[in-house]
């Protein structure tokens, strides 16, 4: 790979991290951070971030806007597929019954998977449909804030 490509990719990754953090999500970069967040009592939304176009154009905007709702998860966290590999693998170990998918969203309660919004429900869809899908999960599984 050329030096220019590496610089470009580092910039893309940095921007993707900053975008999701500014939306209110906490970056989890180690398996220990993932375990601590997911095992905590209450509901946790995990956004599995990536550098693909559907993450930037659909998933991250949906992540940012879906949380402006009467009911929402207790915690908002994110892992970065392809970047923080051990943290992502640890998070996916909680997503029983679901294949690896990025970008994606997992809603958990007390460390147990409740539901997922997988890549096939993001890629090719518009951000509003993903927001509606996430808010439907919040309505069923989360408390009012």
Keywords:
alpha/beta, 145 residues, five-stranded mixed sheet, 19% strand, Glutaredoxin, 5 strands, globular
Q: Mind explaining what this structure looks like?
A:
This protein is of the alpha/beta class and 145 residues long. The protein has five helices and five strands; from the N terminus they run αβαβαβαββα. It has helices at residues 3-22, 31-39, 53-66, 85-92, 127-141; strands at 26-27, 43-49, 75-80, 104-109, 112-117. The protein has a five-stranded mixed β-sheet, sandwiched between helices. The chain is globular. The termini are far apart. The mean pLDDT is 94. This is BrxA/BrxB family bacilliredoxin. InterPro entries: BrxB/BrxA. Belongs to the bacilliredoxin family. It holds the Pfam family Disulph_isomer.
Outline:
The protein has 145 residues and is an alpha/beta fold. It has one domain: Glutaredoxin. It is 46% helix and 19% strand.
């Amino acid at each position: 790979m050329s030096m220019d490509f590496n610089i470009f990719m580092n910039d893309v990754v940095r921007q993707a991290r900053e975008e999701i953090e500014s939306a209110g999500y906490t970056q989890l970069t180690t398996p220990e951070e993932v375990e601590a967040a997911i095992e905590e009592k209450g509901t946790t939304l995990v956004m599995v971030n990536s550098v693909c176009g559907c993450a930037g154009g659909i998933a991250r905007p949906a992540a940012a806007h879906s949380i402006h709702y009467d009911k929402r998860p207790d915690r908002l966290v994110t892992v970065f597929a392809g970047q923080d590999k051990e943290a992502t693998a640890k998070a996916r170990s909680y997503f029983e019954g679901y294949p690896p998918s990025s970008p994606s969203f997992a809603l958990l309660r007390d460390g147990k998977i409740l539901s997922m919004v997988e890549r096939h429900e993001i890629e090719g869809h518009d951000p509003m449909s993903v927001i509606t899908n996430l808010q439907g999960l919040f309505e069923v599984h989360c408390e009012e804030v």
